[in-house]
Amino acid sequence: MSKSPITCHVLDSSTGKPAENVFIRLQQLEVSNNGGPDIFHPLAKGYTNADGRCLDLLPPAGSEEETKEKTQLIAGQVYKVVFKTKEYFERTNRQSFYPWVEISFTIEKPEEHYHIPLLISPYSFTTYRGS
Predict the structure, then answer these.
(1) Is 26:58 a contact under the CB 8 Å cutoff?
(2) Residue 97 and residue 124: Cα distance in Å, rounded?
(3) How far apart are alpha carbons 27 and 103 in whole angstroms?
(4) What pLDDT digit, counting tens, does each position of 14-73 carry?
């Protein structure tokens, strides 16, 4: 099975384990042409698996499902991934400072795979472009 052109991996650095069942929403930016607000529109959603990974956020590139759902990635387009971390920490009986983490990024080459790792702890997070 082919995977999504955008994948995520969430690791809880305070426990050294994957963060399972973290809700993820992918959004696409619409820039206002008339001075109004720029708006992010929902594009996809998913959850991390037992390994902390979300491999099926979007249909595989080039698939019929991708065409039907109009989820093709666009060069130069800004996207945002929102990770709902508060619920994860609440399920593990811990407080957290950040209720969610937002990571905005630009797609430069839609034919490439984009992997977004997120390392979380109750009071910090970090990310980078993975491979």
Answers:
(1) yes
(2) 8
(3) 10
(4) 999 999 999 999 999 999 888 889 999 999 999 999 999 999 999 998 889 998 998 999
Structure tokens at 3: 């995977």
Instruction: Please give the sequence-ordered ranges of beta strands (E in DSSP) within the chain, or none if there are none.
Output: 6-12, 17-18, 23-30, 39-47, 53-54, 78-84, 101-106, 114-121, 124-127
Tokens of 42: 């929902």
In terms of DSSP H, where are the helices of the chain? 64-69, 85-91
Examine the pLDDT at 92 and tell me if it is beyond 80. Answer: yes
Candidates 2, 102, 120; CA nearest to 61 is 2
101 and 88 Cβ atoms separated by less than 8 Å? no
Cα-flanking dihedrals φ and ψ of residue 117, to 5°? -80, 145
Query: How many CA atoms lie less than 13 Å away from 79 in the CB half-sphere?
Result: 25
Structure tokens at 25: 């929403």
State the Cα–Cα distance between residues 59 and 25, nearest whole angstrom: 14
